[in-house]
Amino acid sequence: MRQCKGWSGVLLVLFGVIAVGSEAQKLPTRDEGLFQMQIRDKSLFHDSSVIPDGAEISGYLFRDTPKRYYFVVEEDNTPLSVTVTPCDAPLEWKLTLQELPEEASGEASGEPEPLDQQKQQVTVDEGTELFTYKGNDVESYVATSTPSGLYQLELLSTEKDSNFKVYATTTPESDQPYPELPYDPRVDVTALGRTTVTLAWKPTPTGSLMGQPVQYCVVINKEHNFKSMCAAEAKMSTDDAFMLAPKPGRDFSPFDFVHFGFVSSDNGFGKDRGLTSNKISRAYTAKLKVSDIQKVCIGNKNIFTVSDLKPDTQYYFDVFAVNSATNTSTAYVGTFARTKEEARQKTVELKDGKVSDVFIKRKGSKFLRFAPVSSHQRVTLFVHTCLDAVQVQVRRDGKLLLSQNVEGVRQFQLRGKPKAKYLIRLRGSRKGASTLKVLATTRPSSKQPFPSLPEDTRIKAFDKLRTCSSVTVAWLGTQDRNKYCIYRKEVAENYGEEQRRREQNQCAGPETRRKSEKVLCKYFHSPNLQKAVTTETITGLEAGKSYQLDVYVVGHSGHSVKYQSKLVKTRKYC
């Protein structure tokens, strides 16, 4: 090997190109002690065009604006490895060996050349092109023997502003910065459920054989697989990368200040680039859309179950082996899978005029089918929710007829059709399990097992008729003659609507009440619906006490429906 001559001249030219008027910084070499000191000081390489030997650097590209980095190989026949990792968008990059003229060496005359001539000497000769690549894969240039010289890496993003990472080393055999993939780098799906997917992969030999600290990170999303960890993290980020505050020491141009939200001066710099400050502000202050993506780091386990997924949904899964010491990572070959569909519910057949008791799990669903055997003009659907509200959907031969939330008692009149079939979907509450009674019939209302109800099932209390020992209430009836029973129960002062809802099963009939709570039962109806109202005065109450009043209407077959409960309070002083 021969020592490259006159590297001080090379460094002068290099820094004349990239750092006019700045204090020259010492190029890192693979002297181990010096390298360890330099790599601990991250600010040494910040915003520098010099790539340190054996360390990964991060950078940012503005669209259609190339960026150049330099790397020095000091001796002939030196191995060289350069790895570029695109993050946000595909990149174009090329690696060239710069041929410096002999005049740049230390054997030149002692007269220093003008700085403009030094720039020209480096920039006029484009050098020898060694490698080019265009795409979004993690790609490397590897050579077992390279000549000494100055290597230039040029990167360009033509799609959009983008992040990237670069790693270069002259000792690739000993460095091995990126965790090594096993002989089979695929991620396998070993179990599949409606809301879970179990993944497995072969461990990286970097951790087991080389003793380096390695952990695995799993990325889950609904769009596509990722080829690098930084690509996944860029997708997860909600802030624009360029808005991070730079460290001190960088020279800003007016163009840079515009990107960071400052007003540019009227020096025509932005116009030269075909950009205006207003356009840049709009383009770069918008927040990125947050994707439905999740990253989970799980230590050194190579089996992981992803949970809380949606049924019948396709997901993409990527696994990354991460060197915990250097934070460098390697992507396994990702996979994708579609979760299983929800188990098809068994459809319950409803019989004409028969009451069906239905139980629905929390957030569950039930399907009911009603197929009248005879021709009909209308169908009466009776839904009585016992606990929480449920969502009711009815389709006739596939056509949606109604979709409503039902709480308490509701009757629906559906227009009939010859040989029509009705599918009823009941969806439970998020609060808890639901119990309800359902009746579908084509028969006249007088033959229904459930009593007919008015549209308004509230109980009205008359405040002016309230005394220390009695209250007067009223409720609506129908044109059908039904039996009404009224019950009373003393409750505590702080007894409220929420407590009443929790304790009360709306489907429980008067047979569940104590005899001492019964006030009276009576029959009532009116041919004129405008006059179908009845009143009742409840006596024998104590002064200043609160009571819950319930009215049950009982049908001919014994089925009962309770009106909405009413809380009343007697006067304390009379």
From TrEMBL:
Single GO MF descriptor: heparin binding
Keyword Cell division annotated: no
CDD domains: FN3
Pfam families reported in the protein's UniProt record: NDNF, NDNF_C, NDNF_N
Keyword match Glycoprotein: yes
Keyword tags: Glycoprotein, Neurogenesis, Repeat, Secreted, Signal
UniProt xrefs under SMART domains: FN3 (SM00060)
GO process terms (BP): extracellular matrix organization; nervous system development
A cellular-component GO term for this protein: extracellular region
Location in or out of the cell: Secreted
Signal peptide interval: 1-24
Family matches, as InterPro entries: FN3_dom, FN3_sf, Ig-like_fold, NDNF, NDNF_C, NDNF_Fn(III)_1, NDNF_N
Occurrences of domain Fibronectin type-III (ranges): 179-329, 451-560
Chief location bin: secreted
Function statement: Secretory protein that plays a role in various cellular processes. Acts as a chemorepellent acting on gonadotropin-releasing hormone (GnRH) expressing neurons regulating their migration to the hypothalamus. Also promotes neuron migration, growth and survival as well as neurite outgrowth and is involved in the development of the olfactory system. May also act through the regulation of growth factors activity and downstream signaling. Also regulates extracellular matrix assembly and cell adhesiveness.
Protein name stated in the entry: Protein NDNF
